[in-house]
Amino acid sequence: MSQAIDRYLQEHLEAYLQETIRLCAQPSVSATGEGVLECASLVEHILQQHGFETWKIEGYGNPVVVGRAAGKSERTLLFYNHYDVQPPEPLELWDSPPFAPQIREGKLFARGAKDDKGEFMARLAAVEAVRAAHGGELPCGVLFVVEGNEEVGSPGIARFVQDHLDLLKCDGAIWEEGGIDFEERPGTSLGRRGILALELEVETLSRDAHSGNAHILPSAAWRMVRVLAALKDENERILIPGFYDHVRPVSEQDLELLRNLPDLEAYLRQSFGVRGFVNNLSGFELRKAVFNPTCNIQGITTGYQGPGTKTVIPARAKAKLDFRLVPDQDPTDILQKLRAHLDAEGFTDVQITYADYMFPARSDPQHPLVELAARTAQEVYQKPYQRIPLTGGSSPVYAFAGPLNIPVIDAGVGYGITNRTHAPNENIRIQDFHNAARHIARILDGFAGIF
Length: 451
Fold this sequence. Notes:
Helix content is about 35%, strand content about 20%. The chain folds into 3 domains: about 1-190 and about 360-450, Zn peptidases (Aminopeptidase), CATH 3.40.630; about 195-245 and about 295-360, Alpha-Beta Plaits (2-Layer Sandwich); about 250-290, no CATH class. The chain is globular, with a radius of gyration of 24 Å. A 6-stranded mixed β-sheet has the order 1-2-6-3-7-19, with helices on one face. The chain is an alpha/beta fold. α3 crosses α12 (about 430-445), α4 runs parallel beside α11 and α10 (about 370-380) crosses α12. The longest helix has 23 residues, at about 1-25.
């Protein structure tokens, strides 16, 4: 069966690349709304062309496109993807226009090539390869959920899942993204951290004032500095009372998985030009640190930012923060504790503007779906499979994994951090698109038989 799958994908690779180019040429920037509705319709049309019954569901932000195809088995595998993309700016840093896809140097360059339109099309290619290998019939059911709000935090996706549990009934899921690391080793993330993203704002004056009055007039900038200093100490310990109450201890199984992962220290130093890591971490402790929740300052806005000087006392200050949370922390609980902490420290005047949150999520490293992905990845990539217990980022995995009671893995077109996701010149290697389709097709081909 694998030979038939590979033969189909080799023969039809160019056709699927052209479909990917067509999809990437359609703007779909959820942050601005540019082209989003048109792209939702295009995704639905593409699914219909590939034999899927479709629904374009409104009421959860941008439309959610669902496609379903029946198989010989009642088992169903869900693919989660999104059609929205990040804004392409700064445009001057692109070597070719972001929505005019180009293939050069064995890569496809376009906004969305990696995140997430290339992933979506590689999966459709895999579905068609399996269907062809089985004489036109799928061995199990396939369900696509393609949303249009992922790049703005998927604010409606949890409610969407809760409202459509019958439509989304399945036995496992392959999440967006995935692929190989910088040494071309395949693997999957078995967990994502949660997130609480918000903005703090303080106002000390009705307008900016002359800094000659700094001896009597309070500065919003200094007040915000003191607010931020009250959140975390110099050893990265978050000072909010009760913040760590529900942190799940790292298990022996997780520690063993971490020990089996490659040492990325040299790679990270080179990639980010970092001289030293947080708390001078290195080796195994550097890998283990992903289980530490964080409080990050995304940005601070206050006072004069132009050239030269302007002797003013800032009247207002804002800071954007995100807390990355680990199992079993609850972002809504952390928000309440943050408010209580600020009040107790005398910062009752600081306003908290809620932005976004997601819960942590985990999958069983020994689940049969993980075992299937590992076995088939070895066949495609000829290298051992990495089971990553937790990754630093966040995604709405929790919205599906919990309510649907399913394992979630990833497999995709990624190649380390070379794809320039969210940055100018976003790209995928053609060979990674091809191999992702080969791997996913093998997972789909064996899915019904693992239960």
